[in-house]
């Protein structure tokens, strides 16, 4: 079997750039389910420091709008230019909860990795985003979640010192039932991803202080309860 693109990438660059479980690895698995072809125009929503956009542009030769809230487009532009990807990846500041600054029916795909949970765990975000996809365009999301739904009261004891409501972690079936309420999308995939443990293992090697803080949580047993949920649907 071919070595994953992610395993051949500069791991020190990835460790310095990831903001959670290795987004390049997650995007690579997600992309393997998507009908990507060179020249497509993709919105990478919540791209952070852009390693998902880099995977899409380098491996699939697509054009990417790398949109994020917390990371300044100027910082991302420097990174993309250093990699020679400035013609392929356009950095832009977007808050998905505010006005979306694109034309309707503009994108072949919207991809979102480890971000959608922060603003998409409601019935309004999917219908808000779908008009920006061409008819038949693809919405593809990967989010960290739980293997089953917990409330503040039922969070496993090992996780109690760490868990906070702003994680927005849900189960695969929770996401499936949210998306199945939206008539504007035909669900194609709703699955738990294979790369979960490896993506988390990569993250725990990162010098990012949040990664260092996550080590005791995973040592306490986080592995048992975490998953990555992949959602893919086609705009009808
Ligand atoms: C955990 S980081 C992950 C970043 C990147 N996708 C990765 O995996 O490395 C979550 C990202 O979601 C983005 N985000 C959160 N709320 C957002 C919003 N309302 N609109 C756009 N992006 C948002 C943040 O800016 C942040 O970069």
Strand content: 15-25%
Rg, Å, rounded:
17 Å
Q: Kindly, what is the distance between the CA atoms of the first and last residues, rounded to a whole number of angstroms? A: 35 Å
Counting DSSP H or I runs of 4 or more residues, the number of helices is 9
Q: Provide the spatial order of strands within the biggest beta sheet.
A: 3-2-1-4-5-7-6
| Strands, count | 7
The percent of residues in helical segments reads 25-40%
Shape: globular
Overall number of domains: 1
Q: Summed up, what is this model?
A:
This protein has helices at 5-8, 11-17, 23-31, 51-60, 73-82, 125-129, 172-179, 196-204, 209-219, and strands spanning 41-45, 63-68, 89-93, 107-113, 133-146, 185-192, 226-235. With 236 residues, the chain is an alpha/beta fold. It has one domain (5-235): 3-Layer(aba) Sandwich (Rossmann fold).
């Amino acid at each position: 079997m071919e070595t994953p693109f992610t395993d051949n990438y500069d791991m020190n660059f990835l460790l310095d750039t990831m903001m959670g479980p290795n987004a390049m690895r997650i995007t690579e698995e997600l992309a393997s389910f998507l009908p990507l072809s060179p020249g497509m125009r993709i919105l990478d929503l919540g791209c952070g420091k852009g390693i998902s956009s880099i995977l899409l542009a380098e491996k699939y030769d697509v054009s990417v709008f790398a949109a994020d809230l917390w990371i300044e487009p100027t910082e991302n532009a420097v990174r993309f230019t250093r990699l020679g990807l400035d013609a392929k990846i356009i950095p832009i500041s977007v808050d998905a909860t505010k006005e979306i600054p694109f034309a309707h029916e503009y994108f072949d795909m919207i991809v979102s990795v480890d971000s959608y949970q922060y603003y998409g765990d409601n019935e309004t975000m999917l219908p808000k985003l779908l008009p920006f996809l061409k008819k038949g365009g693809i919405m593809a999301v990967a989010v960290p979640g739980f293997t089953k739904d917990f409330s503040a009261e039922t969070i496993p004891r090992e996780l109690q010192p760490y868990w906070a409501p702003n994680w927005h972690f849900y189960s695969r079936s929770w996401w499936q039932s949210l998306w199945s309420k939206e008539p504007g999308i035909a669900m194609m995939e709703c699955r738990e991803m294979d790369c979960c443990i490896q993506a988390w293992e990569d993250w725990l090697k990162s010098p990012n202080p949040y990664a260092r803080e996550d080590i005791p949580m995973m040592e306490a047993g986080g592995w048992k309860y975490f998953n990555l949920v992949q959602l893919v649907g086609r705009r009808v």
